[in-house]
TrEMBL record:
Region listing for Disordered, in residue ranges: 185-204, 239-355
Domain NlpC/P60: 354-472
Protein name: NlpC/P60 domain-containing protein
Biased composition (Acidic residues): 308-317, 333-348
Biased amino acid composition, Basic and acidic residues: 239-272
N-terminal signal peptide: 1-24
UniProt keyword Signal present: yes
Coiled-coil boundaries: 27-75
Keywords annotated in UniProt: Coiled coil, Hydrolase, Protease, Signal, Thiol protease
Cross-referenced Gene3D superfamilies: 6.10.250.3150, endopeptidase domain like (from Nostoc punctiforme)
Classification lineage: Bacteria, Bacillati, Bacillota, Clostridia, Lachnospirales
Length: 473
């Protein structure tokens, strides 16, 4: 009967060891997919931030171009006003020039008439005639002076008229030149306006393209966030399934032990009944025949020895499910190390060298039975779970973070199916060292050993884990 229970237990254990690694492998795959998705999300968010910065820089450029364009358009308006004024001045100058030319021409015509009169009424003898007709020398001089003044007046007026015409002509030329310069300035401003407008249109088109890119990146980031939510949901289901399997395994193990204990008790009772029956028979044989009594006694002893051969009581201490105090302990969340407490260096420590994972387990196992101390790092006087792991690996020259959440990022991540002795397993708020036989050595809780303290537990999967990390390669 006992052998049958052992076979059933073996079959159950093999079935569980097949189910759990499959769930662990899928969990590792989802964790890897989630990490990749988070990396893509970070890249998308970084790209979105970069595009936003570029868009903002472009909008600043657009604002600057807008301001320059407004100034250029204002300059063009001013130039248009000045050109209009010049055109008005040029028109007035042309009118003045026409008046001056008319005056000049009239003065010239008058002078010609007077010269013609003198010539026609005196010719070359005009002075002699004027002398003969004069009553006195005074009258002669007066007439001569008058004639000279008339002649000089005509010459002076004609000269003034010519100067006026020249001044008006020069002013017209100057205004025309100024107008040409204003028109050149206006043309340059219009070219600048066209250039600015073209640059502005291009910048606005680019800004619109940035908005499209940003919208696309945001949509992609939203997809990544949605995917992460799905992956988190799947991880949650895996964790719940693993917890359910662990609970079922615990109940099944308890049932198996109960059945095994019942079988052992039944077997022991059968042995006791057989011994009592053999004793009664031997007593009867002794009363009838001493020699037969001796033979039967020998045979009974031999039968007893045959029944007890190779069936010593089993030691179940190394293959038990952790007690309820361990699985339900409230002390998984760990504190920071006090400022005045450094990880304790144990005797025989030789920091700076690496070792095998089994050597780590052997070293850690030396301290089984020592107390659990919240916030402690002493392997002898007491440590919490992360302080225990930190101090053990410190002995071999490995520097690990102080708290379990940070230790989840130490070393190299592996799956549970790849794990071996010396790897660390990180739970939510707890951490332990895998022993390679499906168990762990860890600092559990403040309960007295073996329920708490630094201890060995046979089932590393007694609760869902977050990560498996390899420190010793």
């Amino acid at each position: 009967m006992k052998k049958r229970f052992l076979i059933l237990s073996l079959i159950f254990t093999m079935a569980m060891t097949q189910v759990v690694p499959v769930a662990a492998a899928r969990e590792d795959d989802v964790q890897a997919e989630k990490a990749e998705t988070q990396s893509k999300l970070s890249a998308a968010e970084s790209k979105e931030s970069e595009l936003e910065d570029q868009k903002n820089a472009l909008l600043n450029e657009i604002d600057s171009i807008d301001q320059n364009l407004v100034q250029v358009m204002a300059q063009i308006d001013i130039l248009n006003g000045e050109i209009t004024d010049k055109e008005s001045a040029i028109g007035q100058t042309k009118e003045d020039l026409a008046v001056a030319e008319a005056n000049r021409d009239k003065q010239y015509e008058d002078m010609k008439k007077r010269i013609q009169y003198l010539y026609e009424n005196g010719g070359s003898n005009a002075w002699a005639q004027m002398l003969l007709e004069s009553d006195s020398i005074t009258g002669l001089l007066s007439k001569a002076e008058y004639t000279e003044k008339m002649y000089q007046y005509d010459r002076d007026e004609l000269k003034k008229m010519k100067e006026t015409v020249q001044e008006v002509t020069d002013l017209g030329n100057q205004l025309a030149q100024e107008k040409a310069e204003l028109e050149e300035m206006k043309q340059a401003q219009e070219q600048q306006q066209a250039s600015l407008q073209s640059a502005l249109d291009e910048k606005k088109a680019t800004a619109s393209d940035y908005e499209t890119q940003i919208a696309n990146v945001r949509a992609q980031a939203d997809e990544y966030r949605s995917l992460i939510e799905q992956q988190n949901a799947e991880l949650q289901k895996i964790q719940e399934e693993k917890a359910r399997q662990a609970e079922e395994a615990k109940k099944a193990e308890e049932a198996r032990k109960a059945q095994e204990k019942a079988a052992q008790e039944a077997e022991q009772k059968a042995k006791d009944d057989a011994e009592e029956e053999g004793t009664g028979q031997n007593s009867t044989d002794v009363s009838s025949n001493d020699s037969n009594t001796n033979d039967n006694t020998d045979n009974g002893n031999e039968a007893t020895n045959d029944n007890n051969d190779g069936e010593e009581p089993e030691d179940n201490n190394n293959d038990v499910t952790p007690p309820a105090e361990e699985t339900n302990t409230p002390n998984y969340d760990e504190p920071e190390t006090p400022d005045n407490e450094e990880p304790e260096e144990e005797q025989g420590s030789d920091s700076g060298y690496s070792a095998s994972g089994q050597a780590v387990v052997d070293y850690a196992s030396q301290f089984i039975g020592n107390p659990y101390v919240w916030g402690g790092t002493s392997l002898t006087n007491g440590a919490d779970c992360s302080g225990f792991v930190q101090s053990v690996f410190s002995h071999f020259g490995y520097s690990l973070p102080r708290v379990s959440d940070d230790q989840a990022g130490a070393g190299r991540g592996i799956s549970y199916s790849e794990s071996r002795a010396g790897d660390i397993i990180v739970y939510s708020g707890h951490v332990a060292i895998l022993t390679g036989d499906g168990g762990i050595v860890h600092a559990s809780n403040s309960a007295p050993y073996p329920q708490g303290g630094i201890k060995y537990s046979s089932n590393a999967l007694y609760r869902p884990y977050i990560a498996i990390r390899r420190i010793v390669e």
